[in-house]
Task: inverse folding
């Protein structure tokens, strides 16, 4: 079984500051991990994904995430926040093998970027 | 344009009405999904269709009735809804369900309000 915990439902940063959104997962099998972003009044858009290749994954809009098995974490970072990064961010996990490939979602983290 | 188109974007309906939500994708995907997104709750997977066949129904009340006439189109028929059914309904598509590493492509959603 899999589960996802996103630490902090709201994160606020200044424009130009580091963005760090935390995601910890639990999985009884090797996982696939995803970050999605949802802008206001939009659906979810895939930011990046970890599928057992490189542990440091680069995504769109300057975001990246690092898979750390020892810490069961997949935190999302961006060196310098932009106003347009204000959105809701969701972490999700699924198994990378077996028949049950259901995506398990976190509750989301709302990112505010202050001028 | 995300590749997955949902109509209508907004819908207000009375509890005795019958309406339908439509989802269309031309990405060549074979799996399609209905999700319900409510405030402060994880994304709720409602239905899964794989190659036009329903493969999951996650205990969804019968007042929600899905239809998948082909791999490109998905409908959600609504009747005698309750106010607590008000939410954002998201459609998504992916490669066949067993290939979770591809991630999902989401539509922009239908904001449903039941009055």
Result:
């Amino acid at each position: 079984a899999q589960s996802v915990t996103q630490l902090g439902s709201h994160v606020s940063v200044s424009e130009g500051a580091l963005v760090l959104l935390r995601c910890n997962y639990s999985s009884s099998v090797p996982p696939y991990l995803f970050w999605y972003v949802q802008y206001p009044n939009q659906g979810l858009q895939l930011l990046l994904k970890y599928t057992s290749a490189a542990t440091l994954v680069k995504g769109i809009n300057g975001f990246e995430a690092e898979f750390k098995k020892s810490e069961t974490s997949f935190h999302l970072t961006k060196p310098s926040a932009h106003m347009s990064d204000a959105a809701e961010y969701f972490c999700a996990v699924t198994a990378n093998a077996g028949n049950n490939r259901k995506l398990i979602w976190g509750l989301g983290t709302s990112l505010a970027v202050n001028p | 344009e995300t590749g997955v188109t949902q109509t209508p974007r907004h819908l207000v309906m009375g509890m005795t009405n019958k309406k339908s939500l439509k989802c269309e994708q031309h990405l060549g995907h074979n799996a399609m999904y209905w999700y319900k997104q409510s405030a402060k709750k994880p994304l709720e997977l409602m239905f899964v269709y794989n190659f036009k066949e329903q493969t999951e129904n996650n205990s969804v009340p019968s007042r929600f009735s899905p239809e998948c006439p082909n791999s490109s189109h998905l409908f959600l028929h609504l009747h005698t809804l309750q106010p607590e059914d008000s939410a954002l309904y998201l459609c998504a598509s992916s490669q066949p369900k067993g290939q979770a590493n591809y991630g999902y492509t989401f539509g922009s959603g239908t904001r449903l309000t039941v009055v």
Chain B touches chain A through 24 residues (CB under 8 Å). The mean pLDDT of chain B is 90. The radius of gyration of chain B is 13 Å.
